[in-house]
Structures are given as C-alpha cells and as structure tokens.
Design a protein that fits this description.
By secondary structure, this protein is mainly alpha-helical. The chain folds into two domains: 9-115, Rna Polymerase Sigma Factor, Chain: A (Orthogonal Bundle); 117-186, Arc Repressor Mutant, subunit A, CATH 1.10.10. The protein is built from ten helices and no strands. 22% of the residues are buried.
Length: 186
Amino acid sequence: MNELFSTNFSSDELLWERFKNGDRLAFEQIISLHYASLFRFGTRYSKDTGLIQDCLHDMFVYLWERRLHISGTDSIKKYLLKSFRHKILLELQRTQRRGWVDEDEAIDMSPDQNFEDFFVFIETEQLSAKKIKTLIDLLPQRQQEALHLRYYEELDIEHIAQVMSINRQSVSNHLHKALNFLREHW
C-alpha cells in the first residue's frame, strides 16, 4: 500500500516530513510546487526581480540547512508564504527598498504565466480589469495584501492571519473593508 494512504497525515504533512528527514526529491517537489506562487507574492513587495529571487533562494537554502529544527506543518503553502513574507520584509527593511507593484508589472515579471483567477471578469474584460486595478491601488497596503492572499493564493482566513501575523478578526476586517470599497466604487 502506498505510504501516502497508510497514514492519517495529509499529503502536505507527509511531504513536509519527508523533506525534514532529508528527502531531496521531496524538497525539490516543494520548490517546484510553490516557487511561482511565492515569486508572484514577492512582486507585491518589490519590483526588483533579483531581490525576490535572492530572497527565495536564501529562504530555501535556510530551510534545507535547518530542516531538522523546523516545525511540522499541515499547509506547506502557508508555511512558505509566512517565511517568505518575513524574509522579504527583513531584506527590504535592511536595504530600505519599499513599494507595492501594480498588477501589470507583477504579471510581466512573473516566471510563470499560469495565474489563478482573482476575479473571473478581470480576465475577460479589459476595461473591468483596469477599473478594478485602479480601485485596488486605492486600498491601503494591508487590505491589498489580504485580498492577494485570499483571491490569488486562495488561503483561508486562518492561514492569512498567520501569514500576515495578525489575528483572524483583523483579516476579516481588512477583507470586508476592501470588498465594501470595491463594491461601493464599482
């Protein structure tokens, strides 16, 4: 019987345990599954693709070197998003490079053009896309980040709270305010 089906672990938990036990193929699979998504997430913080790639590389090297000492997780994506957010914010603070990027630039910089839907109508109507982008740009950065994690990364409230290092109610408030603003100004 396949090891995956013989335990009560989720596939993420099993893959993470294999990685922590030194399975290089599991580590490569984690990188392969999450690199593009993490890169896209990084473009929300910086236009500097070299910086984003360096932060990703450093984070993955750190994880490999510290794999015996890191905690388990039931969601690799959540763990990586939180780790990468922490890494890139530290690097931006260290180098004093800040600034959110507009969505068109983020798309142009991404190494992978397989984007998940943010809103279905954005992909089908150019004018709607420009209007929603303009409205999103008017939102505070934390609301933009919450929207990105919810609709691009498809994380639930609990995971968003962990990635953003805030409580669940704050995430709900950010999303509620952002969506109300978008509805009112649509």
